[in-house]
Q: What sequence folds into this?
């Protein structure tokens, strides 16, 4: 099974800080860093994490690091315990950042990420749940890490196994639990129990012969003279009043009563007093026990022998007069010696003055010699400077000649560039001429196609006359067809306007738009517009603020485009696309048709010949724009008409969404 968490990973900030500490330790042996805090997160962490990013990542919990212990093998072991005692909302534990401190600055030492889902639930008010982690990492000098031991220790796996083995040998089976004496709780022990060791504490019952000392707490006013029961009496309250204690002592003390003796210890200065009980009503006075500590003695002491300090006798009052007389004689002798020393030093000063004058003369002679040497050196350097100046002048002349040669070379190169530019300019002119010829040929081709279209129209008119003769008047047919279309239009659902549709309408295919539906019940909402005639397809689509109204009837497809552009349209851009022709039988030969202008609105820009409608055999449709850039806010109005000699694909729009 994979580990629940990754190994400890150093951050870049952690590595840099350790490098600084190791460098500092070479100068200061006490250079150390500390590891003290962990932050938990619901996101994975990386080596780029730094301390200043902690708050922005939204830590879920902040916990102190447990024990931090450098080992002899240059590794550092840490114990981390995460619990939900402070959680009101659970989270998925993804990362744990370990933060340290060096020179008063916090840094992210490293992190651990979870390898699987680890949910930390909120505290339920009954039981605290914990996640314990043992973390270790290697370092070249583990002594740079401060040892840190939390009072609330944690068990490692080895600790736990050792504890289980101990419990197996020390804890009585549950079946025998009711038959043993427990460490806590009031219990009655029957029969005779023999103890090989002294009983410590309070024992009630028939155990008066045991060697024990009762422990009592004094928290109210009391008179120590009436205490006769053996025991240790502890007083920590300052507000009560104690009588019968040594004069000048505080209300915080320990009193030990054993038999007829009382031992009093003042906690404020650790002074120790003792007294004895003569009878039930009489006590001796308190006597202070002299200890090896600084203290003040109020009583008078008579020494039978001379006291000593560090092996030397201590001067007494009777010795001071003789000492004073001896010091007066010594002071006179010292004054005489000082006067003699002053006279001796005066003679020495005179001799030193003579020596100093000789030294001044010698140094003056040396200074003159040095000045002469410096003048000579200056003359030599002046000659050298002139030589260097001549060399620099020659170098300057040589470089000037080289610069002239380089300029001539550059001039020739520039001339070659100009010749190349002239050659390319002539080539560009020739290319422009070829382009003009190509444009002329395109114009002629367009004229030829117009002529052919006119010829085709004439042929169609002639064919229509022939058909009129064979099948009747085409005008009557068109009139009848127009009446039929008008009748159909009156009974059809239109793209705009509110209309009521009566009767059940069943559709065998899907209707594309913002929502696909299989059956119309009451009304249609959104951008989709559906024709009620199976041979007419209508669709409305919006993009970039433009409205595209598409109608297909037999071999004819028509698209009207209008609206104010809400974002810039580039010089070549697809405006509307349903399908990509990837399933078309003739993808390489789509049907193309040019556009035609239907009119302007204000300062509108017509698509004109720049709009293209592409229709593939698999029903895919694409409307594209090629022309000048159209800026946001421009009103656009245009249309694209496609005429085909054969019907267009039946499901042009309906099979796309």
A:
């Amino acid at each position: 099974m994979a580990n629940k968490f990754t190994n400890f990973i150093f951050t870049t900030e952690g590595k840099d800080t350790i490098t600084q500490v190791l460098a500092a330790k070479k100068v200061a042996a006490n250079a150390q860093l500390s590891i003290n805090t962990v932050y938990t997160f619901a996101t994975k962490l990386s080596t780029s994490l730094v301390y200043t990013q902690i708050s922005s990542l939204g830590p879920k919990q902040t916990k102190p690091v447990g024990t931090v212990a450098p080992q002899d093998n240059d590794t550092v072991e840490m114990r981390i315990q995460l619990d939900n005692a402070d959680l009101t909302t659970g989270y998925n534990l993804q990362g744990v950042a370990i933060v340290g401190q060096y020179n008063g600055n916090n840094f992210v030492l490293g992190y651990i990420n979870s390898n699987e889902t680890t949910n930390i639930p909120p505290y339920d008010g009954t039981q605290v749940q914990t996640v314990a982690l043992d973390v270790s990492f290697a370092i070249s000098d583990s002594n740079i890490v401060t040892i840190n031991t939390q009072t609330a220790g944690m068990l490692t796996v080895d600790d736990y196994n050792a504890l289980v083995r101990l419990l197996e040998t020390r804890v009585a089976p549950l079946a025998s639990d009711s038959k043993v004496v427990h460490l806590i709780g009031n219990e009655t022990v029957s029969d005779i129990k023999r103890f090989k060791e002294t009983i410590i504490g309070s024992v009630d019952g028939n155990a008066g012969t045991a060697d024990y000392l009762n422990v009592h707490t004094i928290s109210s006013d009391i008179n120590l003279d009436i205490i006769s029961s053996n025991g240790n009496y502890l007083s920590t309250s300052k507000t009560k009043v104690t009588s019968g204690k040594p004069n000048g002592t505080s209300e915080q003390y320990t009193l030990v009563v054993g038999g007829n003796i009382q031992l009093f210890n003042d906690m404020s200065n650790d002074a120790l007093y003792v007294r004895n009980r003569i009878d039930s009503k009489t006590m001796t006075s308190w006597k202070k026990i002299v200890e090896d500590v600084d203290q003040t003695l109020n009583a008078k002491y008579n020494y039978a022998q001379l006291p000593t300090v560090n092996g030397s006798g201590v001067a007494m009052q009777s010795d001071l007069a003789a000492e004073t007389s001896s010091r007066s004689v010594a002071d006179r002798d010292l004054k005489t010696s000082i006067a003699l020393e002053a006279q001796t030093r005066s003679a020495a000063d005179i001799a030193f003055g003579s020596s100093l004058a000789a030294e001044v003369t010698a140094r003056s002679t040396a200074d003159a010699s040095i000045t002469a040497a410096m003048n000579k050196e200056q003359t030599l350097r002046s000659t050298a400077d002139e030589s260097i100046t001549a060399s620099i002048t020659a170098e300057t002349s040589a470089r000037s000649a080289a610069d002239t040669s380089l300029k001539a070379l550059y001039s020739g190169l520039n001339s070659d560039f100009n010749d190349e530019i002239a050659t390319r300019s002539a080539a560009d002119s020739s290319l422009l001429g070829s382009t003009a010829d190509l444009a002329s040929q395109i114009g002629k081709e367009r004229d030829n196609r117009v002529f052919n279209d006119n010829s085709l129209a004439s042929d169609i008119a002639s064919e229509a006359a022939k058909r009129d003769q064979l099948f009747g008047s085409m005008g009557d047919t068109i009139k009848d067809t127009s009446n039929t279309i008008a009748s159909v239009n009156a009974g059809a659902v239109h793209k705009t306007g509110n209309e009521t549709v009566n009767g059940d309408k069943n559709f065998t295919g899907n209707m594309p738009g913002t929502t696909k539906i299989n059956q119309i019940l009451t009304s249609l909402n959104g951008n989709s517009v559906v024709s009620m005639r199976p041979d007419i397809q209508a669709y409305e689509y919006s993009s970039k603020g433009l409205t595209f109204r598409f109608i297909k009837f037999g071999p004819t497809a028509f698209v009207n485009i209008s609206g104010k552009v809400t974002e810039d349209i580039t010089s070549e851009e697809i405006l509307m696309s349903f399908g990509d022709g990837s399933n078309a039988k003739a993808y390489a030969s789509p049907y193309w048709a040019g556009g035609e202008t239907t009119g302007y609105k204000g300062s509108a820009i017509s698509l004109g010949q720049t709009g293209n409608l592409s229709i593939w055999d698999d029903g895919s449709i694409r409307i594209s724009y090629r022309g000048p850039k159209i800026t946001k806010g421009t009103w656009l109005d245009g249309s694209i008409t496609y005429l085909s000699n054969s019907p267009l694909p039946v499901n042009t729009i309906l099979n796309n969404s």
About this structure: Residues 149-154, 514-532, 585-609, 653-657 have pLDDT under 50 and may be disordered. The first helix runs from residue 12 to 25.
